[in-house]
Amino acid sequence: MARILVTNSEGTPGVGETATMLAAGAGGLDAIEAGIRLVEADTSIRTVGKGGWPNLLGEVELDAAIIDGNTFRSGAVGALKGYLHPISVARAVLERLPHEMLVGEGAARFAGEIGAERANNLIPDSERVWRQWFEENVSPADQEKWPDVPLAQLCQQAIDPEKGMDTTVFLSLDGKGEIMAGVSTSGWAWKYPGRLGDSPIIGAGCYADTKYGAAACTGAGEMAIRAGTSRAIVLYMKMGLSLERAVDEAIDDLLRLRGGLIQRITLHSIDRDGRHRVVAVNAQDQLSYWLWREGDGEPHAEPVELVAL
Ligand code: ASP
């Protein structure tokens, strides 16, 4: 069975490491975690880990998940503050707890308990841009009372797709023919505190089943939550559809969403035969992703297929 790795352009700092590990026979979970850790630590990737954009209060809240497609054990963390590698905390949830997801204070408590590396994830540039937003958009009266002010209206105004979006997603078929997925993100810039996107929601932001394939989403997480997109793609494959058709069906589900946040969403998928498909719905610009296949040598960039809603 040919090994394969798909990651999005945010995966640039980690794709080489994950591909090298897969080529050397590492299991998918180890290879994915190692690659995502490199993305999380790289401050030039502004939507993942350290350097990610903050929420409305100027705090960086991180989401991550990892899933084992053999056992369907997953580990996820949501709205985690103060730690450098949410993907490793998520992996520890998978390995050490009888739970699948921790959020907020509980996730931070667990991260401390396992000795995870602490970090101030708000880099000076993010703080500067957030402060500018604050000065320009929060009334002087509310600035005085900050943070004890209603945030709902600010959250409606604040969503800025220019800077708001992205996640890193990694999907692998490893040397044992096992399929795994992992994702990590700072979520949407200026999000309401405590908002979880699709990334930590297993079945929305990612899913994997060694018998059929895996999928993961980036972009408007609210859409993937509503349509259960990653699970849907894998389930459509289980119901007998090809990868191509399974993704078409998931796009059809997204087309039926009404109201709420409708924005760009990108669907990444692989199947057990080593095929893959990466499609963006509602994209304004051409996007690319990384593909590595056994025998390819280095990972290479490919253009994302674009579909308009
Ligand atoms: N899907 C992520 C979220 O909604 C963000 C993104 O990938 O653009 O939090």
Strand content: 15-25%
Strands side by side in the biggest sheet: 4-3-2-6-5-1-11-12
Q: What is the number of beta strands?
A: 13
Average pLDDT reading: 95
The percentage helix is 25-40%
User: Topology as H/E string?
Assistant: EHHEEHEHHHHHEEEEHHHEEEEE
Categorize the overall geometry: globular
How does this model look, in words?
This protein is of the alpha+beta class and about 300 residues long. It has a single domain, classed as 4-Layer Sandwich (Glutamine Phosphoribosylpyrophosphate, subunit 1, domain 1), CATH 3.60.20.30. The chain has eleven helices and 13 strands. It has helices at about 10-25, 30-40, 85-95, 105-115, 125-135, 140-145, 150-160, 160-165, 220-225, 230-240, 245-255; strands at about 5-10, 60-70, 75-80, 100-105, 170-175, 180-185, 205-210, 215-220, 265-270, 275-280, 290-295, 300-305, 305. An eight-stranded mixed β-sheet has the order 4-3-2-6-5-1-11-12. The chain has a five-stranded mixed β-sheet with strand order 7-8-9-10-13. β11 and β12 (about 300-305) form a beta hairpin. α2 (about 30-40) packs antiparallel against α3 (about 85-95). The radius of gyration is 18 Å and the shape is globular. The mean pLDDT is about 95. The structure holds aspartic acid. Aspartic acid binds next to β8.
